Amino acid sequence: MVTSDPITRRLQRLFAVLDTDEEGYVTWGNYQRIVGRYTAGYALAKSDARIKDLERAYWAQWLGLLSQVTPGQDRLSRDEFVAAHRAVGYGSHAAQLLEDLAQAVFNVLDADGDKRISRDEFARYLDFCEISRSDAAIIFRRLDLDGDAFISQREVARSLRAFHLYNDDLNTPGGIFLGLY
Length: 181
Hints:
Elements: H1 6-18, E1 25-27, H2 28-41, H3 49-66, E2 75-77, H4 78-89, H5 94-109, H6 119-128, H7 136-143, H8 153-166
Antiparallel strand pairs: 1-2
Helix pairs in contact: 1-4, 2-3, 3-5, 5-8
């Protein structure tokens, strides 16, 4: 059995998180369920600008993945998902796609609108993701790159880029914003 590289293993874990119905494929509906979880978890209206931005960011990511497979395809197997992510991840638009997603996620988490995520706002996010609060301090410290006791939009973006592109650590903290921990 061939052991895949860390980025491939991480993308396979992301596929498993997205494939909530365990049918062996990821579709746009899987991404819509993520947006729906944010909508319900944060008690936001579907028409809320933050939810619309999150949906647009995920839609752009989905279209980017579909651009890497056979035209007309509307679902991706695990191997197609990984290959498409890797192809998009190193493409010219990847940075902007990740930046848009980071901004959209950040805007939902920054409940008080002060342009930073506090420990309390992050704890609410962990509750939403059903992640133990006992891990909160460790995760928060790994995300708070400048040590100012807040998570900035830039730190969210950097952690998402590290998750997708640069880091061999399977538990890179950026995965937390995609449902991986």
